[in-house]
Structure formats: C-alpha cells, structure tokens
Design brief:
3-stranded antiparallel beta sheet, Deoxyribonuclease I, Chain A, 6 helices, 26% strand, 26% helix, 16 strands, 273 residues, alpha+beta
Amino acid sequence: MLSFDSCITVDRTGRGGGLALFWRHSSNCTLVDFSNNHITVEIVDFILGPWRLTGYYGYPNGGCRIAAWNFLRQLANHFSRPWCIFGDFNDILDASEKRGRNNRPSWLINGFRQAVLDSGLSDVPIEGYPFTWFKCLGTPRAVEERLDRALANNLWFNLYPEALVETLMAPASDHYPILIHCRPMPRSHHNKRHFRYENAWHLEPGFKEMVTNSWQVYSNNAIMPKMSSCAEHMVVWSKEHCHKLKYKLKIVGANYIPCAPLLLGRDKFEILS
C-alpha cells in the first residue's frame, strides 16, 4: 500500500515506542542491526560505494538524557564508514532551536552537543521551517522545538557535500516529517512560497482565538518577527483545519450556474440584462 517492498519493525515496549523502516529493493539496502531505539541499514551506492544509515528515536524521558548521549557515542564507535543518523533525538543543539515557554537548561543543550562532537557528527543543513515539533500552537502555552534532524560524519559529507534536510508538513501529527536530500534539490524546491492570507480562514471556528493567542505569545518581539511567527502559526493551523478548502471550492465551482450570460469581446466583456 505504501509502495515499499521491504521493511523491518521493532515492537514497542509498554504503551509507547516502536520503530519501522521501509525501503525499496532497488535501494540495495541490507539490515545491519537494531534495538528499541534504532535501526541501522547499509546502502550500496554503485557509484560512490557503501554507506550506513541509522533511523533513531531518542529516549523521550527527560531523566534518560545522559543514557541517550552515551548510546549515540556507542553507535558512532561501531562505524568507520560513511554514516548518517536521522530521526527524533528529543534534544536540541542550540537555544535558538526552541521557541516558547521556558528555555531549555544549558546543561542539556551542552550535553547533547558534546555527544554529537564526540561521535564525530555534524548537522545536515535544514531547509524550510526550522522547528519540527510543536505543542499547544495558538495558545499562551505554545512551544516549538527542532527535535528531529539528520547528523552525519565527514566521510558521509564527502559523498554528499550538498545534502540537506527539508521540513515537510503533516496535519495529523505533532512532528513534522523530515526528508533528506542527498543530492541537490530540484530548482523548484528552493523557491520559497510567499505567505498568502485566505479570507476563508476568518470564517473558521477558533481562528480568531488562535491568532490572538499567537500574537500575545510573542508580544515582546519586534513587529516584523512577530508578524512572521503569527503567519507561520496560521499556515500550520490551516493545514490542520482547512485542508479540504480547495476541494470544497472545486465542488462549489462545478455546481455554480451564472445568473446572467456574458458577452465576451476583444477587449471587454458586458453582462447582458
């Protein structure tokens, strides 16, 4: 159903967790190892050679942060080849990767950053929205963080020097999916879309409250960053509440019967009575 012909799953422990990795046979992908927190495969690029990819899920419990950092170091010690690890790390590398509520303690940020350095990894540049997880958007308790990312060692960057991570949208999750582009993205991907306000949003229940709360959350910001943040929240809100808007407009347009015929001329049109 998902157009993949191979997969591996790791059952959840208790009520949460669980991992799945899907791939196509044409990717020349072979399972290396796995645990409750990771799945590693080897991919053979017939031009550049083999490299390894790890899908990772960091411990969500705040009390397991040191264990998570040591596990990352442990994984890195197993690889002397090009390696990329991606997923939900439940950590951030810099204070700027969190917005809203209380700041994350510096020892947590520094601890994760040191683990990444000890593992010989660097951040794969991100393209698009900088935050990948959110909670309570449109309320005074709104918070956003970049918990999902891709990291790689120098050998991997030598294979794919122009790699980047693209943030996608998903209306049914509190995490945005991330897409790793190993090679340069098509030109159309780099053209950022301009924000466009839809009048139809104004008619949706809860929209006014969301905008008001978003504006208040960033009340201490300068006007331009404040407007930018509010616009970002409107776009995310519309993905969740107005994703059928174009379909509804199409249906209305298909059933529309004009009240008066139009006479089209070379340079004008007139409505006939």
